[in-house]
Amino acid sequence: MRSILSASRAIARQPTCTSRFQRNTLPTIATRGYAMSRPAPKLNDPSLLKDKTYVNGEWIGAKSGKTFEVHDPATGEVIGTMPEFDRADTEAAIAAAQAALPSFRKTTGRERSRLLRKWYQLMMDNADDLAKLITWENGKPLADANGEVTYAANFFEWFAEEAPRLNGATIPSSVPGNRIFTIKEPVGVVGLITPWNFPAAMVTRKIGPALAAGCTVVAKSPGETPFTAAALAELAHRAGIPKGVINIVTSDKNTPELGKTITTSPAVKKVSFTGSTGVGKLLMTDSSSTLKKLSFELGGNAPFIVFDDADLDAAVAGAVASKFRSSGQTCVCANRIYVQSGLYDRFVEKLAEKVRGFKVGYGTDEGVTHGPLISEKAIKKVTEHVSDAVSKGAQVVIGGSPLRDLGARFFEPTVIRDMKPGMKIASEETFGPVAGIFRFDTEAEVVALANDTDVGLAGYFFSRDVERVYRIAEALEVGMVGVNTGLISDPAAPFGGVKESGFGREGSVMGIDEYVVTKMVTLGNNGQPLQGSS
Ligand SMILES: NC(=O)c1ccc[n+]([C@@H]2O[C@H](COP(=O)([O-])OP(=O)(O)OC[C@H]3O[C@@H](n4cnc5c(N)ncnc54)[C@H](O)[C@@H]3O)[C@@H](O)[C@H]2O)c1
Ligand SMILES: O=CCCC(=O)O
């Protein structure tokens, strides 16, 4: 296999690589690999930065005393440590959640609503600090991190409004004299496992509905980005959320052990996971031992289709938003861009022009629009996807190489044209800043291409033909469709996939259903005294 460097050099030599986008000029860039160290972010409230985790209302370390290192993805530097939990630590967190359940499940929806509302407000009051933490550990630019804080807090606001409306139903019975009604009850202790790409929003999208329903929580924060979740736990404490209701477990190397502990524990009644399809399958297998309720938000491979009748500028803006958000590291990022022949050349040109204006660099630096990728493994995958496409005849229009002078985890935002179905990008999620553009001629052809994948999370298309809008929205085998927009994320919208992108819906009025069980009560004898009773 070719090394990353040789592959990237080969790509950089492509004659079609016509120009480079603006680079951010970092005065402190090291020449070999990593950029030089950056100071820790100056928080308005330094007590939000933790090196312990929150279990049973207390800040604790692992019983073994072990910790793991957290790195700034932009510099590769160690920026702190967190407790390396093991099975026993995790079991203790589950026990705390179990002990807190009987009283928390009895609270009224209105009480839980007030707690969530307070937590929401504390997030908004501390938004600047939370955003700095997100940028520091995830790398995304500060403006994006600020956007994420609002997005994340909005899940608490949303579910604060849902908590008091956990209505059951009355149902006419088929048996004369009987009456039927239903009650929605919290499922119990829930295990939540979230990824690094949204260190705040993926956590709140799960904890919000869990608390609204009256569940208690054991949440495994991502090893790459544990600080934001810890800061959220500090704010939960300040909001008055009772001890044991929220427990955060942290790990890096021991993550599979923690996953196994959560998924096989008889005390945990539900697991909600956001992450890759491969890990999802493993967790599903393990969860079968105790037949848990599950919600899985897994990987995607979103088609992004531009028909000849589209508004070209809107389609380009949509592609920028969908493809390059978080440097391509969201599960709903466009992965395969299909453009109809009539607009193909102009779309490629206009998209490349937009990308040329990007500024890649350290997330807190002025004007930076795109940060690093999360790991060197991610750089390797992106590089492989580009070199695979180039080796099979695609042409790099802009970008195409790692940005070694910025650090080991930066990659040029890239536009590639003349993509073909046999290339890796056609079938694998790139999870990086590479826009591969395929040409198509007919509607039937593009629908077949778009659906030719095992996963089905998001899909996008641009068209001004209202009949086509209905036709394509219905034809795409995905859980979410963006029509004439590249941004679909909204706490009010049901978020989730089909096929191997998982099941369950987060956010929206449906989100809380993932955390309740419906109990049916049949009242016999029309409510009359039973025979034999006085
Ligand atoms: N559908 C969605 O809403 C959504 C959102 C974000 C990311 N994703 C997907 O996640 C993937 C990228 O994230 P990733 O590489 O971090 O995914 P990943 O599956 O490797 O990790 C996700 C989370 O699971 C944990 N994890 C990993 N192995 C585990 C195990 N054996 N037991 C328990 N926990 C385990 C990780 O620590 C992390 O917290 C992409 O495929 C992306 O599409 C999906
Ligand atoms: O990466 C997955 C989540 C993205 C989102 O909620 O917009």
Supply database-style keywords.
single chain, 534 residues, alpha/beta, Aldehyde Dehydrogenase, Chain A, domain 1, Aldehyde Dehydrogenase, Chain A, domain 2, seven-stranded mixed β-sheet, six-stranded mixed β-sheet, 15 helices, 22 strands, 36% helix, disordered N terminus, binds nicotinamide-adenine-dinucleotide, binds 4-oxobutanoic acid
Task: Describe the SSE topology.
Blueprint: H1 4-12, E1 53-55, E2 58-60, E3 67-71, E4 78-83, H2 87-104, H3 109-125, H4 127-138, H5 142-162, E5 170-172, E6 179-186, E7 189-193, H6 201-213, E8 216-220, H7 226-238, E9 246-249, H8 255-264, E10 268-274, H9 277-287, E11 293-297, E12 302-306, H10 312-324, E13 334-340, H11 341-356, H12 376-391, E14 395-398, E15 414-419, H13 424-427, E16 434-440, H14 443-451, E17 455-456, E18 458-462, H15 466-475, E19 480-483, E20 498-499, E21 502-503, E22 516-523
Parallel strand pairs: 7-8, 7-10, 8-9, 10-11, 12-13, 12-18, 13-16, 15-16, 18-19
Antiparallel strand pairs: 1-2, 3-4, 5-6, 6-22, 11-21, 14-15, 17-20
Bound molecules: nicotinamide-adenine-dinucleotide (NAD) and 4-oxobutanoic acid.
Tally of helical segments: 15
Which percent range describes the beta-strand content?
Answer: 15-25%
Secondary structure category: alpha/beta
CATH class of the largest domain: Alpha Beta
Bound molecules: nicotinamide-adenine-dinucleotide, 4-oxobutanoic acid
Strand order of the largest sheet: 14-15-16-13-12-18-19
Domain Aldehyde dehydrogenase: 59-521
Pfam families: Aldedh
Family: Belongs to the aldehyde dehydrogenase family.
Active site: 297
